[in-house]
């Protein structure tokens, strides 16, 4: 079966590159993936895969059903949306949309999902399993997975697989991670309320900007001395708003940030820990405060059984030298974790790095991928799906 999958994928390679470049040239932002969804549904339908649009608002679900020997569905999830970034790659197929770019590789993800469906559909009677392809919108704003689940995309699904491109891994290789792959990502808002006054007489006012700076410093210092260093926490304040004029002491400052953590127990304690630090600083200088801590997506925790399936499938397909067991998780976030709250699943890293030139990171305006990685992803997922369905039969 592996030989059949590789042969079909190789023949489809030119078409898959064509698909990827079309999607790359026509990126759409989160929740606005209307043309991408229609294009995906059209490709699925042309290969006999039943496609349903409008799932999760702008998502697509494609069902490929075998001969009924197994009543379990394996889901394969990829994402559709692009980023608000002006592309600077200079590629012939660069983004046609001003200020929008597939700088996170979702064009590759979508193409791999389509390629997997195309390969499995061409196996005919040799493939007896059931696979559901989820083409999810709005991953970049961490909403699309929730929308898909709410619309029943996981109904009947017993396991789920996914991938994410990784430019630091060369094309032709894959990164496998057991356990935690990504961190939980939460949203933080802190408002410091002081008292305005003349810039020349600071002792008559309560300087919200200065106090805000003390809050930021205290948070960063406290992490190193009050949090378990073996359970990492990252607090990043990414936006500060406050003040009216250079000679007027600000009476209010708003801080917006993100909080990343890997361990559920640590995450649960973070809201109170942050508020206590803010309260102590503000009390020292006579300011008031408001803290709003909103939990975002949990971390991706890969299921050991499905991760082992991915690893074995990849080793059989590409050899052990192409498999990298990732020693550490990322503190990035992925709303793939929303599916894992419902069913077991696993996500792997697809190497897309060039071996002979500089590789820009994800979310960079010059981010590029080695397109040979598409076949690596397609064969890995198609063969994993085959093995999963064979195990289900047993």
UniProtKB/TrEMBL annotation:
InterPro entries linked to this entry: Amidohydrolase (IPR017439), Bact_exopeptidase_dim_dom (IPR036264), Peptidase_M20 (IPR002933), Peptidase_M20_dimer (IPR011650)
Coiled coil residues, start to end: none
UniProt xrefs under SUPFAM superfamilies: Bacterial exopeptidase dimerisation domain, Zn-dependent exopeptidases
Classification via Pfam families: M20_dimer, Peptidase_M20
Domain Peptidase M20 dimerisation: 188-285
Highest taxon of the lineage: Bacteria
NCBIfam families (UniProt xref): amidohydrolases
Protein name: M20 family metallopeptidase
Species assigned in the record: Floridaenema evergladense BLCC-F167
